[in-house]
Amino acid sequence: MSRSLTVEIEKMVYGGRGMGRVNGKVVFVPFTAPGEKVQVEVVRERKDYIEAVLKNIERNSPLRVKPFCDLFGKCGGCQYQHLPYPEQLKLKEETLKDTLHRLIRKGTFEVLTVIPSPHDRRYRIRAQLKVGMSAGRAVLGFYAWRTHRVVEVQECPLLHPLVNGILEGLGNLTLPLAQRAWKVWGIDQDPQAIEHAAENARKNNLPNCQFIAASAEEGIKLVLREIDSVDVVVLDPPRSGARGTLDLLASLRPPKILYVSCEQPTLARDLTRLIALGYNVKRIQPLDMFPQTYHIEVIGELTHGGM
């Protein structure tokens, strides 16, 4: 039997959900906004929190705007269409600071102002469409929020009009560095990505690039066979982070590490480990590459010791 609650939304938290409290227990509700009074249906209850879905808005937030996509709230691709873009940037900066608050309190670095996207829609040049069944027929679209049910999509307002005609340019981190470095190693587990990156290096006359199709750990070991240390490491791990790689990476003794992340909790965890390995966080630069969603790209600059 379903259970309904009335919740006052206090703030937005990482993951794109509104947060409120009922009888002292935290309640998370997607597609809401601070200041709203909403009726929700409980979908999961734990000891310390409740997850719920929005059923009705009794009092709108003054921040709320009309979403530009009819599928908002059904498709799980966007979480912030009901908020003005400047407010989205503000929320992303606040949630990043909340995630890193322990490190901020201990350290001397600052979180810089979010660099906004030049476009808040029609910006995506890559997407993964899913195939599902609806009313006995195959449909193409995106997963609904926190499910594997496919919502049929005829057109996505976030996709660039030419998205189907755009080919990937791979090696996008390594090649710009190669224009200013003596030698650059690019490591990726995807052999096809490595093949395309090497081809791009040849086309751009960058013979100082060496691309390695291997795990980060295996790749670092191969680099260590050639050289004792490097000047800088650009680390762009998957959402799960780089926990198993950091100690080995530190053996390359880079004076500087640039950590690129789109997953704030694993960023905080990995920065904590790098600090324990002797690195100092100098600054954090957030960039909004994903308007209308809770996702944000973050670049952390770390230096070793007293540098």
Description:
This protein is α/β, with parallel strands linked by helices. It has helices spanning about 85-100, 100-105, 175-180, 190-205, 215-225, 245-250, 265-275, and strands spanning about 5-15, 15-20, 25-30, 35-45, 50-60, 110, 130-135, 135-145, 150, 185-190, 210-215, 230-235, 255-260, 280-285, 295-305. The protein has a 5-stranded mixed beta barrel with strand order 1-2-3-5-4. The radius of gyration is 22 Å and the shape is globular. The chain starts with a strand and ends with a strand.
What would you report as the Rg, rounded to the nearest angstrom?
22 Å
Structural class: alpha/beta
* Low-pLDDT runs: 164-168
Indicate the percent of residues in helices. Answer: 10-25%
Strand order across the largest sheet = 1-2-3-5-4
What amount of the residues lies in strands?
25-35%
Q: What is the end-to-end distance?
A: 60 Å
- What's the main sheet like? 5 strands, mixed, barrel
How many helices does DSSP assign?
7
* Outline: globular
Counting DSSP E segments of at least 2 residues, the number of strands comes to 15
Write the H/E string, N to C: EEEEEHHEEEEHEHEHEHEHEE
Q: Averaging pLDDT over every residue, what do you get?
A: 89
Quaternary state of the chains: single chain
